[in-house]
Every structure is written in C-alpha cells, then in structure tokens.
Amino acid sequence: MTKPTPRHLEWAEMELGVIIHYLMDIYNPEIDVSSSIERNAITKEFPASCFAPEGWDTDQWMRSAAAMGAKYAVLVANHCTGFSLWPTKANDYSVASCAYQDGKGDIIRDFLESCQKYNIKPGLYYSTGCNGYYGMNDFAEGVGDEYFQSDRYKEYVKVVEQQVLELWSEYGELFEVWFDGGVLPVEKGGPNLVPILEKYQPNTICFQGPKGFPHNVRWVGNEDGLAPADCWGATNAGEARFDGTVPDEQAGVGDPDGKYFWPAETDMANRDNKTASFGGWAWKEGEDHTAFSTEHLMDCYIRSVGRNSNLLMGMAIAANGRFPDEEQFVQFGEAIRKTFGDEAILAQTGTTTETVQTLELGAPKEINYIVLQEDMAEGHRIRRFRVTCDGEEVLCGQCVGHKRIIPCHKENVSTVQVEILESVETPVMRSIQIF
Predict the structure, then answer these.
(1) What are phi and psi of 10, to 5 degrees?
(2) pLDDT value of position 249
(3) Which of 375, 371, 232, 255 is nearest to 308 (CA)?
C-alpha cells in the first residue's frame, strides 16, 4: 500500500492555503493572452514598462491570508505572458524593466519576508508550458513531437531550467512549488527539473511535479473548489499534466491502491469564475461584486478540506498592488473558526483501532457536523465506514483520510456512532469530533 511521505503529512495539516495572481495581463485587460501568445504580440501589447503599480503591499496580502486562516501561500512568479516578478537574469522581461522602484524591486523577496512576518509557509508557481515572451504554448492545438524536439523549444527549455534554478536556489526553502499544467517529461523534450529540485528544494511539496519526485501532489480535477466525495490520496496517474481547462473528475477521485501517493489539492479563484474576467483568478476593475460570498466559500471548504484535500484559495491582486477583497477573507476566516473552533460538543481524540466507536452526548443536542480523521501514516487503511445518529444513518462513505467533514444538521441527538465496515490491515482512527 502506498504511503505518504512525512512532508505529505505536514502538508495535509496545513489544510488551507492561498495562490496569488499578480499578473502583467491586468494592465492591458482588453487583450486576451490566450490568443496573443506569439512573442511579437506579447512584447507589443504587454511591454515590461506597462507593469506600473502604485506599489505592491505584500504585507497586506499576507495579513489577508492569515485572517482567513491560510497556513501556506503560493505566489505566481511567472505566468503565461512570461513576465517575471523577480529580476531574472534570463531576459529583460521582468520587474527589473518597470519604472516602479527604478527597476530595483523584487516582489518574490518582499513576498517571502511577508510570509515570515505572518508565519505563513511560502511557495512559488512557475509556468513551464506556456510563455508568451518566447511564443511557447505546450497546450496549443496541433502541438506534437516536432514542436518539442525543435531547436527553438530546446533553447526555451534551457531558459526554464535557468529560471527555476534562480527561484529555487536564491530565495531559501519553499514549502510548495506549483506547475500549472504539469511538467513535460524529459524523455519527451521537457526540462530536467528533478536534479534541481533534489539539490535545492528536496523537501518541497510539488504540485503536478516531475514523476520522479517523491513529494508530489495532484490537481483535483476542477477549479471550482470541489473535491469528489471520496478523494483518495493515492493515484495511478503517473503523469499529472492537467492545465485546468477541461474538468477531469477521475483525476480527483484517485485510487486507494494507486502506485503514487500524490494527494489532491483543490484550487479555486476567490472571484466567480463564471462571471469575472480571467476566470476569476486575476483582478479587473469593476468586478468587486464577483467576489464569492462567505456561504459559498464555506460550502467549498467543507467539500474540499472536508474531503481529504487541501483548499488553495485564489487571491486576485489589483493594479495598485493591493488585495481588494481582504474583508472577504476576514469574514471567511471568522466563519471557519465559528463553525469548527476549539469548542466541539464532544471530541474523542487519540489513535484507536476500534472498529466501532459510540459517542454518548448525554442530554440530547443539536449537531451540525461530524468530523473524522484517520491516522494516515501508513496510508489509506479505512475503505468503507458508516456514521449514524441515534441509529439513523447519516453517511455511508469510503474515504476518511486526513479529514472528513460530514454535514448533519440534526436536533435532539443523544448518540453518534462511527463504524469501520471495510479496511486493509488494521484501521487506525485519529479523532472524532462533533460540532
């Protein structure tokens, strides 16, 4: 049975993170980058000089993330235009060529300092497969072996290796590195990133990382903040190359007996991806009303963190360099703490191998959620379970994993019972909590 690494277990404890989009695109929002990927179009429509914030306030970003309860943060360092938020040595398409701070600014450095200030673990996103500055798009229609084996692509691969080397070697330890769309395998012409990872970031969690890296996590299969009801940490999908454009439910389900322990990370924009520009990931003026409600975010939290996945919440940074939806995060964080705070109605903690546990509440009580946690050190041993309230079935499910939040909303409950119906080897329950 496939087991998580200690880093996977630490990552699961984080439960909630943010992914921050501060993109070149927002300074010329009328141009669709997806249709302007050729280099001459990018440099014409998005010259480095148009990246012109009044300032960037990474402290405000991390203050907002901390208010929500985020334990880690991933900053998009280089997105599809190819513009870099650090002064890369690979080219002049970066913050080094913008007027703000006379070209001496480094958003990555400022972000890392703010993460430390707010006790949030830092991560970085880098797009290997889509870069408008070099006119590269691995996911374009008609792309095949000829494209990946061309001299032009081989030169581009060298740039990718140089830039990730800069990010991974010059900014200290990273908790997570993020590859949108995954990484093309070396044998197909992709960059050779495993040696760089192993040398400079051996303990990082790697979203859609190279197959040979031990601490990979996978895409959940959508960008709606929703994990499947049974979301296993293991999978057989050895090449996690999804670009987010086509939902893939099976990618999120996984396989409890899969060859790879790559748990699912559930990502979503903080603005409505059906009504906001840029799929809600990036800011556009006049779209503040598209920020999701607290009720919607809580539903996503229960159906992601509560389904054995981490929730990675988008942060759309405005053109002035600030996060405009701070109050949204404050209210969401307050709702999480109010719902799942320290004051559980009843909690049974400490590992146990008992297959039937009965919790007596004493006087009948109203309950809203039952939260189960499996000891995941040895992998997914619990394969089917049932929860009842006063003998009435609330849920019969398969995966418990790190955390399973079961909505209940029942009045006058006296007894909650949890039964493990099927398991591989000896099942170990970590805790049962009732809220």
Answers:
(1) -65, -40
(2) 74
(3) 232
